[in-house]
């Protein structure tokens, strides 16, 4: 089977000084940092299939809510005590991820989970590959799942991608964690999904005969 190299053009990473300078319109869109294509003439459809297969095999998401152990009433209530308790609960993460999907921001949780997986990896070759996948999926401005990161964090990632480590995305992961905490978590606590779980665990009043 032929081997394909990555085709996604990525902001800053691998570009030399002054590389990728575009037009004024491109600069206004933040595209001036995108380096020129780095790869050969492989058909677009074949490149996409290879990229998709590699990404799906390396970055497996958490199981859906249906595959998680049903939470106890106490666990559900604890999710409202702090965002940390929600994120430390596998079931809580799955429920919260489903909520983020309804807000079209599931990529924040997926990125956070991918960073957790990367930090647990000891094999450098696997680290290199997973770091590239994370970059292409969540950091590249060309990705439909790009997460919102400030310029300082992006520049730090671009430097670290020269020699990826399990902690290449630590600053970015913290920034997205903080974003979910401040922005999505308060809405989650008032969402129908969470309120329904609370009601399921509430004591049922006995009806009169």
Automatic annotation (TrEMBL):
The lineage of its organism: Eukaryota, Metazoa, Chordata, Craniata, Vertebrata. It comes from the Eukaryota. SMART domains: RGS (SM00315). The keyword Lyase does not apply. Transmembrane segments: none annotated. Keywords: Signal transduction inhibitor. Residues 13-23 have a biased composition (Gly residues). Residues 1-29 are annotated as: Disordered. GO terms for biological process: negative regulation of signal transduction. InterPro entries: RGS, RGS_sf, RGS_subdom1/3, RGS_subdomain_2. Residues 82-198 form the RGS domain. This is Regulator of G-protein signaling 19.
